[in-house]
Amino acid sequence: MSAKLNSAQRYKNPAIRSHLASQYVLATLSSRVQRRFEALLKTDPELEREVYQWQQRLDPMNNNLKEVPPPERVWSELSQTLNLKTNTATKQQESWWHRGWTAIPIWRSATAMLAIITLSIAIWPSTNQIQSVDYLAVLQSDSSVVEPELVIAAYKGAKPGESHLHLQWNDRVEKTSTSNLTLWTVSRENGQQISLGPVSVAETTRLLTPTEWKLIKNSAELLLIEGNSPSDPVRFRGPCLQLNPWNKA
């Protein structure tokens, strides 16, 4: 019993909680510790927020990573491993078409190996993968506008703190500043408006806590308000559409 109490007290230590949250985001926890940590997340909203904060803090590293070209020796080693060197006389007798056609499987293998090597060099794995949109809000400044000015897309993450929003302007309309605009959800159940803070963050990637994701999921529409109060002027608004089945969102 005392051992369990000591373990519970350990997880209340701010330094330990911050360390575990950061390692969880970096995916460096052991399977056992990760399972225990995810069980805690389900009952500890403060710990969820800690994960979200670390995710928000580390996300710029992920977005700003530059590609690292492999050194020349990698190609040499690949050539030796895949037996790419052939007899010179035989090469001269082969047509360029035949050589190119027969080399396709080899280059596929080489590309796969090169991708693995490149990934092993990266410090932080990229999350810029193609992902389907779960919710989409098409926003207009006025119903008389010919085309919507912008859209806000919401993507469901695999882990707490990985769900996110992204704002995209319509290239055929004039883009305006969003620096003084805040994003608000409008509940489908009672019409309550809840602020998600400045929308300008969503022009790159706006991460969402599990609570914020539920607000998006249950919203009838999204608003961009000029100010920090629900009574301030609404600059843009639009219905929030669900694009994926409920059991996947």
Describe the structure concisely for a colleague.
This protein has 249 residues and is of the alpha+beta class. It has eight helices and eight strands. The two termini are 39 Å apart.
Written overview of the protein:
The chain is α+β, with helices and mostly antiparallel strands and 249 residues long. The chain folds into 3 domains: 2-63, no CATH class; 72-121, no CATH class; 135-248. It is 41% helix and 20% strand. It has helices at residues 2-10, 14-25, 31-41, 45-63, 72-81, 88-93, 96-121, 210-217; strands at residues 135-139, 150-155, 164-169, 181-187, 193-198, 206-207, 219-226, 234-242. An 8-stranded antiparallel β-sheet has the order 5-4-7-8-1-2-3-6. The chain is globular. The two termini are 39 Å apart. Mean pLDDT is 75; it is low at 86-91 and 101-128.
Layout of helices and strands, plus pairs?
Layout lengths: L1 H9 L3 H12 L5 H11 L3 H19 L8 H10 L6 H6 L2 H26 L13 E5 L10 E6 L8 E6 L11 E7 L5 E6 L7 E2 L2 H8 L1 E8 L7 E9 L7
Antiparallel strand pairs: 1-2, 1-8, 2-3, 3-6, 4-5, 4-7, 7-8
Helix pairs in contact: 2-4
- What count of helical segments does DSSP give? 8
Largest pleated sheet: 8 strands, antiparallel
- Give the overall shape: globular
> H/E series, N to C?
HHHHHHHEEEEEEHEE
Q: Structural class, judged by helices and strands? A: alpha+beta
What fraction, in percent, of the residue positions are helical? 40-55%
Number of β-strand runs:
8
Strand order of the largest sheet: 5-4-7-8-1-2-3-6
The first-to-last residue Cα distance is 39 Å
Low-confidence stretches: 86-91, 101-128
> What percentage of amino acids are in beta strands?
15-25%
Rg calculated over all Cα atoms: 25 Å
The total number of structural domains is: 3
Mean pLDDT: 75
